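Ticket #4471: structure export looks truncated?
Reporter: QA, pipeline team
Priority: medium

Steps to reproduce: submit the single chain below to the structure queue and open the exported record.
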Amino acid sequence: MNIENTQVQMRKGILEYCILHIISRGEVYASDMLEELTSAKIMVVEGTLYPLLTRLRKAGLVDYKWVESSSGPPRKYYTITESGRGFLMELSATWDELVSSTQQIISLNQNGNTSS
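Actual output as written to the record:
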């Protein structure tokens, strides 16, 4: 097995959740999302981000508006919808459950005792 492939799959699995969290803070430009994800070591490229944003928009979870830019073409800023907020709340509950379950499993040593 290739460790890098497994790591990439783990990161991809939480990408939608992270993107919705970023957008939930307020209007955000796609390149700012890329920058934040990259600085958090969730490597993503434009070719992955833009199709995901399109799927989220078509699902009614995010919306966008065009804003004129003084330094070039207009920019598309994303916002979360009310449906998106509800979806994010459900994902957050799932995330909390997964973290708790994972911690329970990895904190046990071979004898079934919690490690210190």
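Status: closed, not a bug. The export was complete when the record was re-opened. Leaving a note from the reviewer for reference: The chain has a mean pLDDT of 91.
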